[in-house]
Amino acid sequence: MNVSYERVVLSPKTVAGLGLRTSNLSDSMNEDIGGLWNRFYSQAFERIPDKVTGRGIGLYHHYESDHLGAYDMMACCEVTGVDRLPEGFTTATIAGGPYARFVIHGDVQKAVAAFWQELWTLGLPRAYTTDFEEYICGSGGMQDMEIHIYIALDEEKQETPVCQSCGMPMNGQEWGTEVDGCKSTEYCKDCYENGAFTTAPTLEGMIEQCLPFLMQSSSFENEEAARQAMRRYLPTLRRWKKTQ
Fold first, then answer.
1. Same domain, residue pair 19 and 80
2. Which of 128, 203, 120 is nearest to 165 (CA)?
3. H-type helices in 75-181, by residue range?
4. Which residue from 81, 113, 167, 202 has the highest number of Cβ atoms inside 10 Å of its Cβ?
5. Burial of residue 9, with CB atoms counted within 10 A of its CB: 0-12 exposed, 13-18 middle, 19 or more buried
6. Of the candidates 103, 119, 152, which is a domain's last residue?
7. CATH of the domain at 46
8. Domain that holds residue 36
9. Based on the structure, what is the number of domains in the chain?
């Protein structure tokens, strides 16, 4: 997938639609969000007045923390105002400011899901204010859609890459080494030395190896919740993608 992006500065936008609260760690996340989109287009879209373009927007906001925390999601569209909006709708403001703008093409479900998994590994200096997907058009319908995805940036932060084996943010951590002694550009020193992995050879082994550190640094209710989170996250990293 092409993960290059363009930096843009947006003005605030007002949106109206339907919303829910979920988490990337929720087993029902995909089902819940899919159901929200179905309700939006079958029950809500035609009732929203004062649309700007009529394009569907998937908005993510009110983040609890980072991509592992809870957030609000809206299926919505941009509007010029909310004075004539019927009861029962949720409204929000997409924050103005700097964004990373990605353009992807493909199936609306598969392409978007693949994008978000890849995004978690990029180390963007995310603001975690308002991120959104805007569905533009597609000659092949829902299976061949052009989708613009905007990720809010915090320009006071530096990009923080993560180890593509254990997922550890590489802020102040040492990179591993290749056979020739050069620094690796993908893996930390705890996972990779002299061109070879030094850690567990299987995904489940890596999960169990990382679990104590994750429990110390995160707010998971118990080890099983943390374990399930890692089962979703680690397969998005390059080491484990190669074994899928």
1. yes
2. 203
3. 110-119
4. 167
5. exposed
6. 152
7. 3.20.80.10
8. 6-152
9. 2
8 Å CB contact between 125 and 97? no
Please tell me what DSSP assigns to residue 159.
P
Q: Do 95 and 19 have their domain in common? A: yes
37, 76: one domain: yes
pTM summary value: 0.71
CA distance 123 to 182: 22
pLDDT tens per residue across all 244 residues of the chain: 456 889 999 999 999 999 999 988 788 888 999 999 999 999 999 999 999 999 999 999 999 988 778 999 999 999 999 999 999 999 999 999 999 999 999 888 888 888 887 787 777 889 999 999 999 976 666 778 899 999 999 977 766 778 899 988 787 789 999 999 999 988 999 999 999 999 888 999 999 998 888 777 665 677 887 888 788 788 878 898 866 6
Alpha carbon separation from 86 to 16, 48, 83, 128 (Å, rounded): 10, 8, 9, 29
* Domain annotation covers residue 210: yes
